[in-house]
Prior knowledge:
Elements: H1 2-8, H2 12-39, H3 47-75, H4 80-97
Amino acid sequence: MGLVLVAFSGEMTPFSVAMAVSGVGIGVYFAIDLALVADVLPDPRNAAKDLGVFNIASALPQSIAPAVAPAILAMGGGDYSVLFHVAAVFTVLGALTIPRVRGVR
C-alpha cells in the first residue's frame, strides 16, 4: 500500500504520509518474517547458519533492484510511478507466497 501511495503522491506531504505507511508495513513485515523463519528452522543447533542463508535471501532483492530499476524506468518513459507500481506488484507476489510455508520438510 505504501508503494502505491508513493506512486500517486505529487507533493511532499502525501509523499511523507506514504513513506510512513511504507515504513510501518516494512516493520510489521520484518517482525513477522523473522518470527516465521525462526519457527521453521530445521535444526536449532544450526540456527545461525540457517539465519545467515535467510539474511542472504533477504539482501538479494536489494542488490538486484538497482540494476533492474533503470530498465523499468526506461520502459515506463522515466516515470517513477511506474517503478513504484512494479515494486508494489512484486511485493504482493511475495506476500502471496508466504501462506505456502507450512513448516520444515
